[in-house]
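Class, look over these structure tokens:
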Amino acid sequence: MNKKILIFSIAAILATPSAFAAYKTGAATDGTDADDTQTVTVTVPQVALLDVIDASGEGAMTITVDDTSTDAATKIVTPKNAGEAFTGSQKLTGVTYKLSSNVAAAGSTTRTLQGKLNAALPAGWKLSVKVAKPDGTDGTEIPFNGTTNVDLVDAIGNTRTATTEGVVAARAIEYILAPDSTGMMAHATGQTVTVTYTLTAG
């Protein structure tokens, strides 16, 4: 009697393995789709690259106040008669920049391109800069505030200076020198001013 029961039990096990099997998560036993999950962890390094270039490639540009220019719109006119002031402004072009920037995947953090001078300007001078945006859109003329950073281009996210075809492209930086509200500019020969550009953390 005991022997028959044992044989029957073994047969039952061989015939119906599904009654005793343990199915993993995601397995389907009712004809529906089986689903399971897999965690993938991705790490992308932070990138903040900035390169300011001038036409000479030497990292230095020169502005010489010279009112002999025939273009009255781009020169500073020096006083000729007592009581007169310096008038107009003088532009310096030929400077460009390139950048590559990415920002944090989470949140809405962006970067800002800032600029400052290494020292206060001589009395009566006003130096401004106009920086094109990474997409090539024209920038706004913004005066430097001595050694304090000023925002020149904001809302820089995952972007780089490139054409719509993806070709690397430099964007324009234009300096504008003019007298301040006093109308009188301190004279100088070979006065140097260092501009520091910063691409903030993102």
